[in-house]
Amino acid sequence: MAQPLMPHATASWMVDNTSLSFDQIADFCGLHILEVQAIADDTAATKLTGRDPIRAHEVTQEEVDKGQADPAYRLKMIKGPEQVRRTKGPRYTPVSKRQDKPDGIAWIIRNHPEITDGAISNLIGTTRTTIAAIRDRSHWNIGNITPKDPVTLGLTTQRELDAAVAKASKASGNEAAPTDTRLEGDREALIASLRAERDAAARGVDVDHNDPAAAAAALFNDPFKR
Known about the structure:
Layout: H1 7-17, H2 22-29, H3 33-40, H4 61-69, H5 101-111, H6 117-124, H7 128-135, H8 150-153, H9 158-171, H10 184-203, H11 212-220
């Protein structure tokens, strides 16, 4: 689905100038609902200047009105900008946020140890050497590193982080839960008891189900013996 040219700035404008729900804004801008919540609460890493998608000819006022009238309605874009995606090279991080990278790396290592260094490198846009230094606490500034959520710091998005966690969990080899065999003995005893009851009923003999010996005797008793 097409997204606005500046999704975070567009979301900021929609939060301030419309009564659209956070879910509607997140869907239109291609953001996670928690990112929209952070923008609304002014807890985002960067204070954003709103961008009017109506003046940018990305959505009509009629679409916005429909969304405000129906919380379940999903806004449709008039046109989407050309999406430019990097396929090679490290993620670009603004200079103002580069000092936050070690904090974000430390948070991922502490809360999601299953994520590989390569995946962390792609998320944060750093080197494996830096990740390894933080992991083994040999980083030159380790005393000042405080684990902080990289999404809150603006180093990655919640969707990318969730995808990395899901991929790492799958790659870690979540095997099927082992079969519980603790009740196998009781199951066999129950089957024997039911068989004894069936055979005893056919012979007109009462069976004490609380007495395994009696049940077994009834099961193996010769029906032709008088």
